[in-house]
Amino acid sequence: MNSRISIGLVGCGAAGKIQAQAMKESEYVDLRCVVDCEPRAAQSLGDRVGVTWTTEIDRLLDDPTVEVVSLAVPHHLHLELASRVARAGKHILLEKPFTLNTAQARQLVDLCRAQHVTVVPWLERRYLPYVDRIRELVALGTLGKLAYTRVSALGYKPRAYWEYGMRFEEYPSSWRGRKAESGGGILIMNGIHQVDLMTYLTGLEVTEVFAQVATLHHEVEVEDLALVSLRYRGGAMGVVEASCCTYGVNQFPIEAPPDAIMGTDGYLQLGAPLKCYDRIRFSRQFDFPKLSVTDMKIRQLENVARHLREGAELRCSAEDVIRALAVIEAAYESAACRAPVSPCCAAAAGDSGSAE
Question: Contact, 240 vs 117, CB < 8 A?
Fold first, then answer.
């Protein structure tokens, strides 16, 4: 049996370029074709990674040699295109935030189950090298009873980001600033990664969200600044800071406070190295390599390939991203009504990430 999976990529913008590079570097993937409605984008990426390119998605969907289709397209196109892929009988890799809302996500999950295909969200931060150690320390009770989490998505996006995308393409890519097409700003675009990672690391369930958002600096329809307070089942609390209008943050020599998990008996400072302070060992450090987004995506591709070929357990499923998306939805609702909101986290019954 061939251990490599054959993939077609739809979307040749910033996210698609990162995906394509990961696919070309992965020993578990055979990238067959890239697709984009903008021919310059499709040709440029196809030539760069040495594969066929096209502007017609049907050419990809009709190709029986392609098993998996990865989508890196504007958010408002996720449901439509993923549904077409599912009906073509191909497995799906889908960029965050998966869909514009949880209702669309459940609709897609139900369709994939009916079509007997697997749909997997790109949640590559779950593949950071320190993730397993943190989950082990939490499970062992090293931190005692979990009390507080802090996570941030802080940085600065210039005007060109909103008009030409993350890599400032030569052609317009302005959908990110329009709420109907993006679903929101810094929270749904970036903060969803942090929400998902923190709940995955701790095993905590968000039961209440209180949020404030603002459009402080950029002339767009979506938020560029957000502060989200979380309450977890069992009483622990957390905060999510998100901004794309804070110049210099996370750029040397200015550093944002590190993400952290705090408990009654210990404290974890996330990163490479991972720092742990607890009552037993007092202070210790775990060294891990620093990975790029491409590196993390390579690790996720291996997991997906092993799942499809060997039945290995997926590290992240559609059900997982629905939970994170529900928290983001609750944050937007809370900001609008200026009151706490409980996220509706119930995903579709069964294993929504697995092929039947």
Answer: no
Q: What span, in angstroms and rounded, lies between the C-alpha atoms of 312 and 29?
A: 16
pLDDT at 136: 97
Mean pLDDT of 12-39: 96
SS3 177: helix
Among candidate residues 262, 263, 352, 279, the one with its CA nearest the CA of residue 316: 352
In which element (H, E) is residue 209 found? strand 206-214
In terms of phi and psi (left: phi > 0; alpha: psi -120 to 50; beta: otherwise), the region of 168 is: left
Q: Phi and psi dihedrals of 263, rounded to 5?
A: -135, 180
First to last CA, the chain: 20
* pLDDT tens string 109-143: 999 999 999 999 999 999 999 999 999 999 999 99
Confidence of residue 253 (pLDDT cuts 50, 70, 90): low
Mean pLDDT, residues 77-89 = 98
Q: Which residue has the higher pLDDT, 53 or 173?
A: 53
Please state the domain extents for the chain.
5-125+294-315, 128-289
Three-state DSSP class for residue 143: coil
The first and second tokens of residue 300, run together, are: 């996720």
d(CA 128, CA 296): 6
Pick the CATH number of 128-289 from 3.10.129.10, 2.160.10.10, 3.40.50.150, 3.30.360.10: 3.30.360.10
Cα angle 32, 33, 39; round to 5: 165
Superfamily, domain 5-125+294-315: NAD(P)-binding Rossmann-like Domain (3.40.50.720)
Query: Residue 134: what pLDDT?
Result: 97
